[in-house]
């Protein structure tokens, strides 16, 4: 429409122009141009806004807290099984005194007692006793044990405490592992008796002195006697240990330890062997939030031979303590004594010589927490032993063991352990040790040493006053020396035990313990079979409750 208007207007102008040119009268003309065009703005689009309230947020915020767990953990160290050992587990009820008695198909009887005196704050005295007699199915397979002693402490002054112990232990074993088993012996010819008198005294400060020093010197003396039909021997051991630590700052400390270990061994032929060991252990310790370092050396004198042992350890951990790297290069000694050797193998005869075992270990591993209740620890290392004691059967009937030494022995060692703890309700631990021996010098094989060992223990509070315990011990067979001086390997062992203890009155508990449930006839030491299935039960009487 607008375009046509423009065209009409243009044609009108042309027509008028021609008409004006046709006139030549010279008069001025007036031309009026009329147009119907009107400019119009296009309607603008409008944006409409509608006020709407925001939607209500009904979702709950999820807040995450990262609180590091600090459970109480206990170092587990597995002990060697003995065919005559009774792994009875006693529940720690809240009582000051108790008497525990029991009977079983192997142990007749079993007695244990404990008495406490004092306020446990400024002074305390504990009296303890334990004894049992056992007899197995094999001829002369029996053993008896008795132990009594007292232990206590006394606080003097504001920052000083004395502690001490006196004890006596008597043990009787019988050499029942003879072959052929048709041989006949008198009981007096087979009995081996051990007697130990022990005393110790120590002094320590309760809290650090004004100079940041902590100390705990202690002296322990034992008199040990071993007697059998062949010979008897006497040994005196004295150990003086003086550990001192001085704090420099909140993170740095200096340790200094001095140890003197004396052994005087009197053989049956009246000859005397003095086996003395001295060492000093200075070290610097750093303890940060995520790093712990322990650096030192240990100068030692094994009789007259000097050895400088390493003492280096380090741990690097995360803030929540769930993962820790650990590494170390450490050296130590195991004292060579007649008394210590009998705790390893009670069927040995008196040794002809005493040598201290020196060892160095280089290891690395991890440890930490899994979740809220699991703890773990895994290490891999190489251990070098010098003068390692080994035990071999005699070449007559094999009922006794002789002590021999490997001058050098290497072991590739793997250790792993895991634990689970729910306060007092449930606790469980398991540990595995693997040793691959090599580089043996002085002996043909690592006689009697276990290549693989596994131990597990569990304690569960099923109800308020009902506890259930269980345990497993297993190992791969060790090698032993035959009568012809050859080498053979024994059979693997598996031993499972379980027990219950519960209250029937305020002062009376009932308990039962079953060992070697599957009645396995394994041998820890060659020719010495352990007891088969055995059950033991009785009562616990508690009194003087608080």
Automatic annotation (TrEMBL):
Domain of life assignment: Bacteria
Record's keyword terms, sorted: Signal
Position of the signal peptide: 1-22
Name of the protein in its database record: TonB-dependent receptor
Organism: Pinibacter soli
């Amino acid at each position: 429409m607008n375009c046509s208007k423009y065209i009409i207007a243009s044609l009108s102008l042309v027509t008028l122009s021609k008409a004006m040119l046709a006139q030549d009268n010279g008069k001025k003309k007036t031309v009026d141009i009329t147009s119907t065009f009107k400019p119009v703005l296009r309607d603008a689009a409008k944006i409409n806004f509608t006020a709407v309230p925001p939607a209500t947020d009904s979702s709950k915020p999820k807040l995450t807290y990262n609180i590091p767990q600090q459970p109480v953990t206990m170092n587990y160290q597995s002990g060697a099984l003995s065919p005559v050992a009774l792994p009875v587990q006693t529940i720690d009820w809240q009582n000051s005194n108790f008497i525990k008695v029991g009977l079983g198909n192997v142990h007749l009887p079993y007695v244990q007692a404990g008495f406490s005196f004092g306020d446990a704050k400024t002074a305390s005295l504990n009296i303890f006793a334990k004894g049992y007699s056992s007899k197995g199915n094999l001829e002369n397979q029996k053993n008896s044990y008795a132990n009594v002693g007292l232990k206590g402490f006394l606080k003097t002054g504001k920052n000083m405490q004395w502690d001490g112990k006196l004890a006596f232990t008597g043990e009787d074993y019988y050499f029942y592992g003879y072959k052929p088993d048709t041989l006949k012996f008198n009981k007096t010819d087979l009995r081996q008796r051990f007697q130990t008198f022990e005393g110790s005294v120590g002094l320590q400060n309760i809290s650090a002195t004004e100079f940041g020093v902590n100390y705990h010197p202690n002296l322990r003396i034992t008199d040990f006697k071993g007697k059998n039909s062949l010979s008897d021997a006497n040994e005196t051991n004295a150990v003086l240990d003086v550990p001192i630590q001085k704090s420099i700052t909140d993170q740095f400390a200096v340790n200094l330890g001095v140890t003197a270990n004396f052994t005087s061994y009197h053989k049956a032929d009246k000859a005397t062997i003095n086996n003395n060991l001295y060492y000093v252990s200075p070290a610097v310790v750093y303890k940060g939030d995520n790093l712990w370092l322990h650096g030192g050396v240990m100068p030692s004198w094994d009789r007259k031979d000097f050895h400088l042992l390493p003492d280096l350890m380090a741990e690097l951990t995360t803030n929540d303590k769930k993962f820790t790297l650990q590494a170390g290069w450490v050296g130590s000694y195991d004292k060579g004594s007649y008394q210590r050797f009998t705790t390893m193998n009670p069927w040995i005869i008196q040794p002809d010589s005493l040598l201290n075992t020196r060892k160095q270990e280089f290891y690395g591993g991890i440890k930490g927490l899994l979740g809220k209740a699991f703890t773990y620890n895994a290490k891999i290392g190489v251990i070098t032993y010098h003068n390692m004691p080994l035990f071999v059967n005699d070449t007559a009937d094999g009922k006794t063991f002789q002590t021999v030494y490997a001058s050098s022995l290497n072991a590739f060692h793997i250790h792993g352990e895991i634990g689970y703890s729910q306060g007092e309700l449930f606790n469980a631990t398991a540990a595995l040790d693997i040793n691959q021996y090599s580089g043996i010098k002085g002996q043909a094989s690592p006689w009697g040493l276990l290549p693989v060992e596994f131990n597990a223990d569990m304690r569960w509070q099923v109800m308020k006053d009902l506890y259930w315990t269980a345990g497993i011990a297993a190992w791969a067979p060790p090698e032993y020396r035959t009568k012809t001086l050859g080498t053979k390997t024994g059979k693997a062992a598996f031993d499972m035990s379980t027990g219950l203890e519960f209250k029937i009155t305020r002062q009376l508990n009932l308990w039962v313990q079953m060992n070697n449930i599957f009645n396995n006839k394994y041998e820890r030491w060659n020719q010495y079979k352990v007891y088969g299935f055995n059950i033991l039960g009785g009562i616990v009487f508690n009194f003087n409750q608080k």
